[in-house]
Design a protein that fits this description.
The chain has 257 residues and is α/β, with parallel strands linked by helices. It has a single domain, classed as Vaccinia Virus protein VP39 (Rossmann fold, 3-Layer(aba) Sandwich), CATH 3.40.50.150. 41% of the residues lie in helices and 20% in strands. The strands form two sheets. The chain has an eight-stranded mixed beta sheet with strand order 5-4-3-6-7-9-8-10, with helices on both faces. It has a two-stranded antiparallel ribbon with strand order 1-2. α3 runs antiparallel to α6, α5 packs parallel to α6 and α9 packs parallel to α10. It is globular and about 50 Å long. The protein starts with a helix and ends with a strand. This is Methyltransferase.
Length: 257
Amino acid sequence: MIYQIIAYIKFLVRSTNQHGVHSPFVFNFVTRCLYDAKNYDAYGSIYAYRKALLASNEEFEVTDFGSGSRVFKSQKRLVKKIVKHSGTSLKRSKLFYRLISYFHPETVLELGTSLGIVAHAMACANTQTKIISIEGCPNVASIAKKQLKKFNIENADVQVGTFKDRIPKLNQNTFDLVFFDGHHDKQATIDYFNLLLPKANNESVFVFDDIYWSKGMTDAWEHIKIHENVTVSIDCFHLGFVFFRKEQTKEHFKIRL
């Protein structure tokens, strides 16, 4: 926690908003997507999905293949408490809705389904987008599948298994958007990035969650953003975005959300 506080202070000092961005591609992304303040109709469904989970008293046992939880000490957890204390926020859900609306990806991969909050938001943005979401815990995946079905989501496929096992078995040749949201560990994050790098195309965006979760995660982020295939990176503190556009000059940005 102390590491995150210090890192955030440094981020605030070094970061900017759209006025500090000179790249047209990044400027448009920041102003038309990240800073888009429109109240989309689909936000009602996003709110309802979260509200339904918050009302659930269902308890289940977690199988955790990642770095564990900083909130929960027991492997038995209530759905509503996960949403309240460690689930994806409403603000984050809306952001992922806008990401899909802005980039119009045909194929999306999410590493870490959890309760399906992000998968639902992305699926709402474009019913033609094919979303594959991998979840290591069978019990969590079961709840996510059930909840997505209740909300008539048909374009999100939740697959059960470890990332290490499932990624090599993916049949897709390319993914337009990949969200890395699980196994918050330096080497694991780098390994999954390397595994999925061959599936990136010129327009792909890779999104990394909690890049300041620990020093190890920040080290992983620094390693990834200087990779020769990455041309643009955007550090928003809680999220990191990398792009592979060959026509772009290599640049790194820190943007306040």
